[in-house]
Amino acid sequence: MPTIIAVTGHAVATGFIFVLTHDYIIMRRDRGFLHFSELDIGLVIAEGPMSLIRAKIGAPKDRRLAVLRGGKITASMAVEMGIVDSARDGAKETLEAAMKLGIELVERKWDGHVYAENRKMLLGNVWDWKHVGLVDEEKKVASQL
């Protein structure tokens, strides 16, 4: 069945990856951002998470902002970039919107196995990771060793 996440604050590094693993993303507009801090701390993002980033952040300029500039992406920016489905004004409103979406989707009475298979087909390359590590340990910057 669909996964929905309500982002009510910052989602940094692995937190941003966790957000991207969901089918639907609702984000608080008045607080928080999405941010890959790997450049700041001298880490290379491993292939598995990078394949998810490529699948979920569509435009090359948006991927560049997120990964190669370490941009702090607000909810409004994320909606424009197509990363987030909607932005809400506060934590309560964000949670309520996520719950409402969940109820709407459950009412569709989809077959969970069919949904899962379609998700696998849509994101198949993402789940074919050679390893699941979030950071490629062999490619850490020398100053971090």
TrEMBL record:
<dbReference type="GO" id="GO:0004165">
    <property type="term" value="F:delta(3)-delta(2)-enoyl-CoA isomerase activity"/>
</dbReference>
<dbReference type="InterPro" id="IPR029045">
    <property type="entry name" value="ClpP/crotonase-like_dom_sf"/>
</dbReference>
<dbReference type="GO" id="GO:0005777">
    <property type="term" value="C:peroxisome"/>
</dbReference>
<keyword id="KW-1133">Transmembrane helix</keyword>
<feature type="transmembrane region" description="Helical">
    <location>
        <begin position="6"/>
        <end position="26"/>
    </location>
</feature>
<keyword id="KW-0472">Membrane</keyword>
<keyword id="KW-0812">Transmembrane</keyword>
<dbReference type="InterPro" id="IPR001753">
    <property type="entry name" value="Enoyl-CoA_hydra/iso"/>
</dbReference>
<dbReference type="Pfam" id="PF00378">
    <property type="entry name" value="ECH_1"/>
</dbReference>
<dbReference type="GO" id="GO:0006635">
    <property type="term" value="P:fatty acid beta-oxidation"/>
</dbReference>
<protein>
    <submittedName>
        <fullName>Enoyl-CoA hydratase/isomerase</fullName>
    </submittedName>
</protein>
